[in-house]
# Entry
Amino acid sequence: MADDIEVWPGRAYPLGATYDGAGTNFSLFSEVADGVELCLFDQESAERRVQLEEVDAHCWHAYLPGVGPGQRYGYRVHGPWDPGNGLRCNPQKLLIDPYAKAISGIVDWDPACFGYTMGDEDSRNDQDSGPHVPKSVVHSPYFDWGNDRPPSTPLHDSVIYEMHVKGFTARHPEVPEPLRGTYGGLAHPAAVDHLRSLGVTAVELLPVHQFVHDAHLVERGLRNYWGYNSIGFFAPHNEYATGDLGEQVQEFKAMVRALHEAGIEVLLDVVYNHTAEGNHLGPVLSFKGIDNRAYYRLVPDDPRHYYDTTGTGNSLNVRHPHSLQLVMDSLRYWVTEMHVDGFRFDLAATLARQFHEVDRLSAFFDLIQQDPVVSQVKLIAEPWDVGDGGYQVGNFPPVWSEWNGKFRDTVRDFWRGEPATLPELASRLTGSSDLYQSDSRRPVASVNFVTAHDGFTLADLVSYDHKHNEANGEDNRDGESCNRSWNCGVEGPTDDADVLACRARQQRNLLATLLFSQGVPMLLGGDEIGRTQRGNNNAYCQDNELSWFDWGRADEALGDFVRRLIELRRTHPVFRRRRWFQGRPIRGALDIAWYRPDGEEMDDADWDADFARSVAVLLNGDAIAERDDRGRRITDDWFLLVLNAHDQQIDWTLPAHGVSRWQVVLATADEGAFEVLLDAGKATSVPARSFSVLRAVELATVTE
# Structure
C-alpha cells in the first residue's frame, strides 16, 4: 500500500469510481480474485498502488479522500492463472474498470498487452502492460442540465437518422475546426440546424462507448471507424472529445442538451454482445483479467476457448448475474445521467441466448421488461447474430422494435426490377404485419430502412452492382457480396446524363418508399446529400474522407426532396398509423385498397403474377379508426401511392372508387408528365421507374 495515501473502507456499492465532492469510492467485482490493487497514476504516469482490503459480496472496495476528477487509475487482480479452466488472472496486466465513466488513452498493442508470449499461446506473459493500455478516469458527475427534458417523441411520429459522430462534422465548413468530428461539433448550431431542417426526430449514433482500434487494422494504417469493439460500457469514446480526463463526459452531456433543445432525441447504438478482448489470443485489457468466467461465455467442455455467436471472438456471458447487472447498470446510467432517449442493440440475438438457443423469455428480456427506467425508453434490436438460429426478425418481445432487414431487401428488389416481389412489398409498405401483428405488437415494431452504415450508401446502391472494398486491405473479400443493388447500366462514376438521371430517380423512389411506409423510418446519415463511399460497402475501417460527409459536394436538390418527404409524413397521420390496416369497410370505404393499372382492385391472380412490377395503394384518411391523445378521432385526406418499377411508362386509370379528382403532390419522375389535377376513372401516363403521391381533392358520394 502507498504510505502517503489515506484509505478508508468505503462501500461495495455503487461499483466503479464514484466522486462525492470530497473524495472517491472505488469498487470492483471479482469472485475469483485473491487480492486487488488499485493503481493511481500522476501526470507523469508514475504509478502508486493501494491494496484493497475490504471485500463484500465479491466487491473489493475503498474510499480515498481527496482523490477527485481527472485522477487516472486501473486495477491489478491477483488470482488463479489456469486458462484451461477459464481463469486468467495476472497482476502484471493493468485492467480498465468495467464501470469507468471515462477512459484516457488508447491501446498501443505492445506484446505486454497479451497474456501469453507471441508464438506460444500456452505460455504466460508477465510483462507489465501498464504503460501500454488505457487508464480509467475519475469524473465529476456534476453538470448543469438547465431545463433539459426528453423530447419523448412517440415512435409512430419518429424519423430516425443513423449517423457517425465524427464523420458528420469532420469536414463541415461551418463548424469550427477544433470542434470538427467531436461531440461539440455535433452540438454546434450548423450541425443541429441541418438535422432540424430535415425534420428528423432522433439521431441514432454509431457506437460511442469507449472502443479499441483492432491490432490488425492499426498494422495496416487503418482504424475501427464504426466503433463496434467496445471496452467501456459507461465511458463516452475519448477520441470524440477535446480531452480525455473527463471532458468527454461533460461534452457528451452538452451535445445531448443541445439536441434536446432542438427537439431531437439521442439514441445510442450499443454493443453489449462482446468486447474488444477477443478470443483466447486477444489482449488482456479488463474483463478477461478480472473474472473471465463471469464475464464471458466459455466453451463448456473446453473453457480455454470462448463461445462466439458474434463473429468477434467472444460473447458476453449474460447468464451470469454480475454480467447482467453490468449491462443493466450501463443502460440506466446512460438514461438517468447522460439523458439519452433509447438504444439500438447490436447483434441483440446474442443477448437473448441464456443457454444456447435464442430465448425471448431469457433473463435479459425479463430485466428489461421490469426495469422502471430502461423499459420506458426506445428499445431497438438488430434481431440477428451469427450463431445457430440467430436470424430472429419478428421474434422479439412486445416492448421492442426491430431493424427490419426484410423491408430493406424487398424494397431494393422491387425497385431494381426483380420479379414476384409485389406480395411482399405490400406487407412491407403496410408495416410488416406478417412479422409483428401476431403477438400484439404495432406497426412501430418495424424500423424500416433501405440503407444503413453496414453496406452501400444510397448513392452507391444505385451506382454499383459490385462492392469495391480494396481500400480495406482484404483483397475485396470482406463485405456482403449480394447487395440487391443496380448501377443503372454503368459501374461507378459516369458522365452519361441518362444514367445519372436514372440514378437520381431511383434514389428518390427508394426514399419515398421508405418515408411513406408504415412503421418507423430510419434514414442513413448522408443519403440526403448524396454521400458516396465509392462502392465500399464495408467502410468500418475507413476513418477518412471515404466515410466522412463531403459537405462541399452536397446534392442540395436531393436534400430538399427529403425535407418534402418528411414534412408530408409529419403533416399526414395516414402515413404513420399507430395500428394495423383492417382491410375492411370502415364508414363505407376500405381503409386500404390495392389497384392495378386498369383502375380495378387487385385479385389473387394479380398478386401472383411474376411479371407485375406496378401497383397503386389507396390510403383512406377517413378510416384511420384511431384517436389522438385527447380522445379525438383522427382523420386525414385520401392518398393514392402509385409505384411503377417497370422500365417503361404505363397508362394508369386512376381509381374512381369514392374519389372524383386527384392532385399530384409528389412525383419522383422529372419528365413533368403529370397534370396538376387528374380526373378519377381516366387514364394517365405513369413514367417508368417512378413513385407518385396523389391526394384526393374531390370525394365521390359513398354508399353505406
